[in-house]
Hints:
13 strands, two-stranded antiparallel sheet, Rossmann fold, alpha/beta
Amino acid sequence: MKILVCIKAAPESEDAIRFDADAPVLIADETTDLRMNRFDEFAVEEAVLIKKKFPGTVVDAVSVGPEHAQKAVKRALGMGADAGIHIVSDYGQSCDAVYVATCIAEYAARKFYDLILTGMMSEDMMQSQTGPMIAQRLTLPWATSVIHETIRPDQKSVYVERELEGGIREMLEIALPALLAVQSGINEPRYPSVSNLIRAIESGVETIPASSLGVAQRPSMVTGYSYPQKIREALILKGTTKEKALALINILREKSLL
């Protein structure tokens, strides 16, 4: 099998991400620490587990992002991926699901992968759109929120269980090639091994300019970014526990909620 894992280099939650109000674009400079999106760690681990189960399987890891996004690709290699691909773009472009999906689809279309894995979403944008968009561009069957998968090579399919609301699971049989967006909890991601990290340093990461894939500009247009606006004041109840409880009861009665 040939498996492609799509990963994103995301900033730590405490790192500030700026945006340019004039040309709206998100900015993460060299001082911003980018590391592998935690949801994508589960996708990498699942690919490595499949590789272990089916000898001869090859796992590639691809990321779209700025120069320091290679850190995430090298971590995937350290976890057991065989090759790393870095599609060079700026951070703002890597936050555009349409742009990222177009880049990865253009690359994957030339490689004929049997399975493409992504994380459920990215920690910074939380759009959950990149995986389905890649599948649509490659005309692949796909499933999201995957909490279990079993490859069935004799049937050229994958058995999938999806997590739905209320603890319900949906069971699917999907023909290969396919794309799966895996949910956190599907496995326990491993730490990168020293030997694999050394191999990653020695073999390096394949670098591809996005323009060489025919994606010179962003297919979608971001009209702007803004910080959440404060639209109402909070009411802070003060006093003893009894006084606050009585005040809350009075408020609820005034609003006809009691």
